[in-house]
Write a structure and sequence with these properties.
eight-stranded mixed sheet; five-stranded mixed sheet; 15 strands
């Protein structure tokens, strides 16, 4: 099983509400189109948007009030998978802090689900909820796992301009936001989850430093840019530092479901 962890900001914090629904829809459809359906998505959020219902999707809300001014977050993280931990109310704070909190919460929620369902050996994959996974990526991770690989990352991916519908190649200097790692539950403790909750740029160096057998893959997913909603303020494709525009092809469109965007 592959447990995917992702997060969605409070909906009233998105400047472009229509684009938020488009990018979220694109992300979820890219999962629905996977050639291998052995996965489950855990989405940390505040308010749960209507119209996005899939049997493999589990929402986990941190909302404390109707306006999403506060977050019901961990005051003390669970020490084990049967430890309830302790929560308290915090201000929503910045979008980047909210994103970090939700990454941790999604990982904890996924781990607790695995423990309840008696999974002991599985993958966890980190994704942003405005990006699109390559159609055969779940299948590819399983194949790599059979070869003894325990961590998957990429530095090269595609990038899609949400407004101009242009596509490009994105060649980053370190690991990007889409990372996967083999997990084990030992007793009631989930090992390795913290690799997915740190700065994604350190994932590749961290797993290699710790002698975890890793594999770099290309074109695993497609970043969305120029949506008006990203925390990093992603610009048009032509202004992306690490991107180069390429021709849109049927193969690329099919790989990520761009024709349905």
């Amino acid at each position: 099983m592959i447990l995917i962890m992702s997060k969605l900001g409070a909906m009233n914090r998105y400047p472009d509400q229509d684009m938020m629904r488009k990018t979220l829809g694109g992300f979820l459809r890219s999962l629905e189109r996977q050639t291998d359906k052995q996965f489950r998505l855990f989405m940390a959020c505040h308010d749960i948007p209507e119209g996005f219902d899939y049997p493999w999707l589990e929402w986990s809300s941190l909302r404390a009030d109707l306006e999403c001014e506060e977050t019901n977050y961990w005051k003390r993280l669970p020490l084990s998978l049967d430890d309830p931990g302790e929560k308290a109310f915090y201000s929503y704070d910045s979008k980047s802090i909210d994103s970090g909190r939700k990454s941790i919460h999604a990982a904890i929620t996924a781990g607790q689900w695995a423990y309840r369902n008696k999974l002991r050996d599985f993958w966890m994959l980190r994704m942003d909820s405005d990006d699109m996974l390559a159609r055969r990526m779940i299948e590819a991770i399983y194949i790599l796992g059979e070869q003894g690989v325990e961590a998957v990352y990429n530095k090269r991916c595609h990038i899609f301009d949400a407004k101009t519908r242009e596509v490009g190649e994105y060649n980053y200097i370190s690991s990007t936001t889409s990372n996967a790692i083999k997990m084990k539950i030992e007793g009631n403790v989930l090992s390795r989850w913290f690799y997915l909750c740190r700065n994604h740029t350190k994932f590749a160096s961290d797993v290699r430093r710790d002698k975890i057998k890793a594999r770099e893959v290309n074109w695993a997913y497609c970043i969305t840019t120029n949506s008006g909603n990203s925390i990093s303020g992603r610009p048009t494709l032509m202004r992306e530092r690490w991107a180069k525009k390429i021709k849109m092809t049927k193969e690329l469109s099919d790989r990520y479901g761009l024709g349905e965007f």
